[in-house]
Design brief:
- With 733 residues, this protein is of the alpha+beta class.
- The strands form eight sheets. Strands 2-1-10-12 form a four-stranded antiparallel beta sheet. A four-stranded mixed beta sheet has the order 6-7-5-8. Strands 23-22-25-24 form a four-stranded mixed beta sheet.
- The protein has five domains: 182 residues, HUPs (Rossmann fold, 3-Layer(aba) Sandwich); 182 residues, Valyl/Leucyl/Isoleucyl-tRNA synthetase, editing domain (Isoleucyl-tRNA Synthetase, domain 2), CATH 3.90.740; 161 residues, Isoleucyl-tRNA Synthetase, Domain 1 (Orthogonal Bundle), CATH 1.10.730; 73 residues, no CATH class; 64 residues, Helix Hairpins (Orthogonal Bundle).
């Protein structure tokens, strides 16, 4: 259960102190720095974004081929771009050094159209010769790759946009235009000047702000960055060496791919709410002061004209410290010694990069150990057809509405059963309805049990009968097997499979079988006491097993069944591993066959029937008699198979049950019914067999269609054999 006294918020005083301490330590190790670099800028929110806060979408666009004339008059160089407006900030053209097409161009200069600026042609390995013409425009202030090219070749970085993404004074005649308006205007001006070679339609990936969905602008800006290289290496090693593992393991590949391709993390944000960056600027000597405590004077010039940086930290910066900042770090607290590292983190795949990777980096850097051993990844809850839930699409389901209509327990159980590790959950309200019905079934089962035991008489643990009867020994052996497998699945974080197993056991074996078997056992004085004892402990252990998924209902029933303490604080079930009666499976099969006979002939459940049981393998046990009478209203005799006709046969393993038809079934009507059904089955077989005998069908039809026909033929063949056997049992008319 959650300890609400440990609730924490990243802006709490203690956590804020941890954030400042981490920032200062990273700065002291030169792992945080302030510099001009290309960042992702949101023109709507007026803030920088980290790389993983940018959502990319494929968007229809154009690839514009522009001719840049050589300044020596020897012709022109054609470049291709999806963003014609950024040419206003070009300070170079780059080609690959091994591209023979441009061997003579390297070192020349071209005239930038519309701006009349001479810019050099440089050779750089980053250029893809297969993109466009193999020659690319270089805009160092508005593209991360171009920024690196510019640094390598000493090219000027000219920022042509304002923070609103409008062209600034460096854009010449286009100043004041929105970037998208400028794109059209630049293309028109280039066309009028004869500089456009041609234009191709081209879909390309465009980044959007994860908050407001505005198209993000690559922007040269003065920001604070975390140098990730030294932090990444040990975090990658931790997963490769198995000190932290992902469940499912396939997510490790995504983790490695992202970690191995990281750029320095921009951590400054131009928003109002967050941890303010602990950096001050001296108005006298321009010294940058990063300190644990607010400074009053400049350590360099002793001046007091200090101004704190107005930016705040990326919210994920403080979140990255969560595994240890919540435990009192940087102080050596008992909580820190006890709970760091943690055992398991359960989280969604969509924040592996935002959060999980950063917690690993920070935990190893500041505590010297991984923050958690296992990272269990779950999927997203989606619509039944697999679409993402969204308020804007009107397809989102509010869990509070579901809780109001069905309860919290059914919602929780439905989600747990559906949420396989790492897989999305196509949520359907039918699951919640099914879980609600299960809760009703559990409640009614408890009412039955409480009707036969004293409320509060079941011990909180133990209390299993020493000499259980065959029915009780069977259910206790099954309970032990289910608990063992449930624990194995839970240890593997396969909670969906674990609760699927438990659900089927409770419904199909406890409710459908043992509660019914217990009625005859309770009526027998010799077995009544141990049966009541078994009913109590089986119900109690079911409540324990289901408690994590349906806590409210199970806790309420616990009060009545056990009567003391909280279920949440009880011990885990540990039933005895008893030898189950070897005949139970055969008995269940026999009961099922008798029930099908009654159903097919529309016989009343109360109509007593006789059954002759032939048991050459001595499988049947004494308790069968009372249970057959209780469950299916038959009087059983044991003997040799009858030699005459007029019996229907129920086969259960080596046991055969013979039910006389005389006086029970209209033999002539039954024979006519079976013959009609046999004719239909034979026709179905003939149709499928004819199709499958046709070579053209087998050669040309899709494999799934052929398989479907083979299934039809096999099913018809089995039906024919069954109906023929039933007709043989009836004998001649």
């Amino acid at each position: 259960s959650v300890d609400w006294s440990r609730e924490r918020f990243t802006m709490d005083e203690g956590l804020s102190a941890a954030v400042r301490e981490v920032f200062v330590r990273l700065y002291e190790k030169d792992l945080i720095y302030r510099g001009n670099r290309i960042i992702n800028w949101c023109p709507q929110d007026h803030t920088a974004l980290s790389d993983i806060e940018v959502e990319y979408e494929d968007t229809a666009g154009e690839l514009v081929y522009i001719n840049y004339p050589y300044t020596d008059g020897s012709g022109h160089l054609t470049v291709a771009t999806t963003r014609a407006e950024t040419m206003l900030g070009d300070t170079g053209v780059a080609v690959h050094p091994d591209d023979e097409r441009y061997a003579d161009a390297i070192g020349k200069t071209v005239l930038l159209p519309l701006m009349n600026r001479e810019i050099p042609v440089v050779a750089d390995d980053v250029v893809d010769p297969e993109f466009g013409t193999g020659a690319v425009k270089v805009t160092p202030a508005h593209d991360p790759n171009d920024f690196e090219i510019g640094n390598r070749h000493g090219l000027e970085a000219i920022n042509i946009f304002t923070i609103e993404a409008e062209v600034n004074e460096h854009g010449g005649d286009f100043a004041g235009l929105d970037r998208l308006v400028a794109r059209r205007a630049v293309k028109e001006a280039l066309a009028e000047g004869g500089f456009i070679d041609h234009i191709e339609e081209r879909a390309h990936s465009v980044g959007h702000c994860y908050r407001c969905h505005t198209v993000v602008e690559p922007y040269l800006s003065l920001q604070w960055f975390v140098k990730v290289g030294p932090l990444v290496t040990p975090a990658i090693a931790a997963v490769r060496e198995g000190r932290t593992r992902f469940v499912p393991q396939r997510w490790e590949n995504s983790y490695f791919h992202w970690m191995e391709n990281l750029r320095d993390w921009c951590v400054s944000r131009q928003i109002w709410w967050g941890h303010r960056i602990p950096a001050w600027y001296c108005g006298n000597c321009e010294e940058v002061i990063v300190a644990r405590e607010d400074p009053t004077t400049c350590p360099s010039c002793q001046g007091s004209d200090l101004r704190q940086d107005e930016d705040v930290l990326d919210t994920w910066f403080s979140s990255a410290l969560w595994p240890f900042s919540t435990l009192g770090w940087p102080d050596e607290t008992p909580d820190l010694a006890t709970f760091y590292p943690n055992a398991v983190l359960v989280t969604g795949f969509d924040i592996i990069y935002f959060w999980v990777a950063r917690m690993l980096k920070m935990g190893i850097e500041f505590l010297g150990d991984v923050p958690f051993a296992d990272v269990v990844i779950h999927g997203l809850v989606r619509t039944p057809d697999g679409r993402k839930m969204s308020k804007s699409l009107g397809n989102a389901i509010d869990p509070l509405d579901v809780i109001e209509s069905h309860g919290a327990d059914p919602l929780r159980l439905a989600i747990v059963q559906a949420a396989a590790p790492g897989q999305d959950v196509p949520f359907d309200m039918e699951w919640v309805e099914g879980a609600r019905k299960f809760g009703n079934k559990l409640w009614n089962a408890a009412r039955f049990v409480l009707g036969h035991i004293d409320p509060g008489s079941v011990p909180a643990s133990g209390g299993y009968p020493d000499n259980p009867g065959p029915e009780s020994a069977w259910i206790l052996s099954r309970l032990a097997a289910v608990v063992e497998r449930f624990d194995e699945l839970s240890d593997e974080y396969r909670f969906s499979d674990a609760y699927g197993l438990l659900y089927n056991f409770a419904w199909s074996e406890v409710f459908d079988w043992y509660l019914e078997l217990s009625k005859a056992a309770l009526a027998d004085e010799a077995s009544a006491a141990e049966t009541r004892q078994t009913l109590g402990v089986v119900l109690r252990d079911l409540l324990k097993l289901f408690h994590p998924a349906i806590p409210y209902l199970t806790e309420e029933l616990w009060k009545e069944v056990v009567g003391e303490g909280l279920l949440a604080g009880s011990t885990w079930p540990d039933p005895p591993n008893l030898a189950a009666p070897h005949s139970m499976g055969v008995f269940q099969e026999l009961v099922g066959g008798i029930r099908r006979f009654r159903s097919s002939h529309q016989l009343s459940p109360r109509q007593t029937l006789d059954v002759l049981i032939a048991d050459p393998g001595s499988v049947a046990e004494q308790w069968w008699g009372r249970q057959l009478e209780s469950l299916v209203a038959v009087t059983a005799e044991f003997g040799e198979p009858p030699v005459s006709d007029g019996f229907t046969r129920v086969v259960a393993g080596s046991v055969q049950g013979f039910l006389p038809l005389e006086g029970v079934v209209d033999l002539d009507a039954e024979r006519a019914r079976l013959e009609r059904a046999l004719t239909v089955a034979q026709e179905d077989f003939a149709v499928a067999d004819k199709k499958l005998a046709n070579p053209n069908f087998r050669d040309r039809a899709p494999a799934d269609i052929v398989a479907k026909e083979e299934g039809k033929r096999s099913e018809a063949e089995a039906t024919i054999a069954k109906l023929q056997a039933q007709l043989d049992e009836l004998g001649d008319s």
